[in-house]
Amino acid sequence: HGDFVSYHRICLLMSEPPSIFEQYSNRAREYSSLHQIQQNQPHLLKQDEPKTGVESDIKAITDHQSIVPVYNDFQGQAQAGTQRLFAPTVLLTGHQAEVLCVKFNPKGTHLASAGMDKNILIWDVYNDCKNVNLLKGHSKAVLDLHWSTDGARLFTCGADKSVSGWDVETGKRLKKYVGHTSVVNSCNPVRRGLDIVASASDDCSIKLWDFRVREPIADIRQKYPTLTLTFNDTGDKLISGGLDNKLYIWDWRKGEADAPMLGHTDSITGLTLSHEGSYVLSNSMDQTVRVWDIRPFVLGSRCVKTMTGATHNFEKNLLRVAWSKDGSLISAGSADRFTYVWDSTSRKILCKLGGHNGSVNETSFSSTDRLIASASSDRTVIVGELPEF
């Protein structure tokens, strides 16, 4: 995994986003969906005058046109999943570098995005997707973000070795946790009960932070860097994955882990807990997305499903994964510039959404409407309606 550490970490620590788009050939550009729209239907991409301050330009594809026409089996056949988004597909711009993470809040009314430009942008989904707040404080790239269960706070972590807690309404940073000695790749708050957030770092440690105290309340040491983690539903266990290709279930109070869950053959970059709490979804550089049964007593293998289609490449970005609220849909980012959506039962690809000109690093489902958001290395976020499958 030397190439991963040398390339990805150097880019983060220098706070200079790699110029990945310079590496695309002219031929690849000619066949991109955005290029085709620019050449044949330029009126669809007409922009208003630039905005000032913390506001960001917002480009909407109206008249039932979409900026994601590259490939979708259901295009033109399905009814819109919601009537409240002001356009079927909305392209959000404002970030000045790669966008690495994006998530809807628990009510589905707001969207948070962050990345290499160190800024965290808050978008009002049903008010023309306006940029309503800008959270600033990280000194290097923001690598992960999560909303609190009530949606009032946001937790972030990044290449500046810190974890932060924010008041979303005021934009103020409430807490800054410092204790890691290297890049913090992932953070995750508990769903209920204790006011605790966990963080995973390249320094081979997992730390747990109580919002009421300054020092970590637990410190778990490993042999290899951890790239992603999540709590279980009750918050008494942690599931982690990293460079050693294994998933661990930790009793964080004791600092002990069950036997590792085996199946992936390369680094694990994303973990997400299902909404009912029995399964964990993982994304790996071995080009697979897997579903794991994390209930206490399981006969046979804990890996119950494997999905393919999404890809990783030389960029070695930490590509994440997402469940829909009812668990019927699974989505993941991909280095091939597409957003993949699978049926969680049949494991079939339901749609493959284009529109980005760079790696799709994270996707997020709305909990209230059939909306999906994607964050990309092309510095944009796309919010769009999903068809009725």
Task: Kindly describe this structure.
The longest helix has 12 residues. It is built from three helices and 29 strands. The protein has 389 residues and is mainly β. The N terminus is likely disordered. The protein has a five-stranded antiparallel sheet with strand order 1-2-29-28-27, with no helix packed on it. The protein has a four-stranded antiparallel sheet with strand order 3-4-5-6, with no helix packed on it. It starts with a helix and ends with a strand.
Topology:
Layout: H1 2-13, H2 26-30, H3 33-40, E1 58-61, E2 89-93, E3 99-104, E4 110-115, E5 120-124, E6 130-135, E7 142-147, E8 153-158, E9 162-167, E10 173-178, E11 184-189, E12 196-201, E13 205-210, E14 218-221, E15 226-231, E16 237-242, E17 247-251, E18 256-257, E19 268-273, E20 279-284, E21 288-293, E22 303-308, E23 321-323, E24 329-332, E25 339-343, E26 349-353, E27 360-365, E28 371-376, E29 380-385
Antiparallel strand pairs: 1-2, 2-29, 3-4, 4-5, 5-6, 7-8, 8-9, 9-10, 11-12, 12-13, 13-14, 15-16, 16-17, 17-18, 19-20, 20-21, 21-22, 23-24, 24-25, 25-26, 27-28, 28-29
